[in-house]
Design brief:
- It is built from ten helices and seven strands.
- With 255 residues, it is α/β, with parallel strands linked by helices.
- It has a single domain, classed as Rossmann fold, CATH 3.40.50.720.
- A seven-stranded parallel beta sheet has the order 3-2-1-4-5-6-7, sandwiched between helices.
- Strand 2, helix 3 and strand 3 (66-69) form a beta-alpha-beta unit.
- Helix 4 packs parallel to helix 5 (110-131) and helix 5 runs parallel beside helix 6 (158-176).
- It is globular, with a radius of gyration of 19 Å.
């Protein structure tokens, strides 16, 4: 291609130029990578996270417009955060961590099992309740969850909790219209959070990576950037609501 021909190709306008993206759980992993990609597409970004030091570093790294350190499971803190945001917002990604329930259910009090089942739904409801009035029409509340379909004693009720999010997303999309609601489901994603489940056993973690490289249909381990790419696509595609996107390299097909 000649220099003249190359210069004649118009530059693409950033897809999120002039929009505002809020990332809850934006100090690391999927949230941070999505914030970075959204900034690259021209968005103003606000980040939240539990750890103030790590959050401040993440905000500097991506050039965030603002950040706030709080627990996304704290309904009062969620309300304060959205009340204090300047101006309208367009997209909200919920990547904040909620504790997962593992192990045989009958070995735990029923109240603990109930809290584990409802934790993500309650968290998202409080976020939606406070974010939606500030969101522009056509924006999306974007949820994240796991895609595990395998039931055994070691996983307990976790797969059922993940499957609940699909129906919850669809129902919430009808309630929040014209704000859109969508869900990204993932299997193993190579993040510090995923590594923490191996309790510092680096050999076991690497064994899991090698197993996934050998068995996943895509023949590689899924990274935060894979989910971030989907998140930004969903933000920009205003025809999509009530949908679930599997970004797991095909893990759901082999579990």
């Amino acid at each position: 291609m000649t220099t003249e021909a190359a210069s004649a190709i118009p530059a693409r306008e950033p897809a999120l130029l002039g929009q505002t993206v809020v990332v809850l759980g934006g100090s690391a992993g999927i949230g941070l990578e999505t914030a970075r990609r959204a900034r690259g597409e021209g968005a103003d970004v606000f980040l939240t996270g539990r750890n103030p030091e790590r959050l401040a570093q993440a905000a500097r790294d991506v050039g965030a417009r603002g950040s706030a350190a709080f627990d996304a499971n704290d309904a009062a803190a969620v309300k304060r955060f959205f009340d204090d945001l300047p101006g309208p917002i367009d997209h909200v990604l919920v990547a904040a961590y909620t504790s997962r329930f593992y192990g045989p259910m009958l070995e735990h009090p029923s109240e603990d099992v109930g809290r584990a089942v409802s934790a993500r739904v309650v968290q998202v409801l409080e976020i939606a309740r406070n974010a939606a009035p500030r969101m522009r029409s056509g924006g999306t509340l974007l949820l994240t969850g796991g895609s595990s379909r395998k039931f055994d004693r070691s996983t307990g009720i976790s797969p059922a909790v993940f499957s609940l999010l699909r129906a919850f997303t669809a129902a919430l999309a009808l309630e929040l219209s014209p704000v859109r609601v969508n869900l990204i489901e993932a299997g193993f994603v190579d993040t510090a959070l995923a590594a923490s489940f191996f309790n510092g056993d680096e050999a076991a973690l690497e064994d899991r990576r090698e197993e996934l490289r050998a068995t996943l249909p895509v023949r590689r381990v899924i990274a935060p950037a894979d989910l971030a790419a989907t998140a930004v696509h969903v933000m920009t595609n205003t025809a999509v609501t009530g949908a679930t996107f599997d970004v797991d390299g095909g893990q759901r097909l082999i579990d």
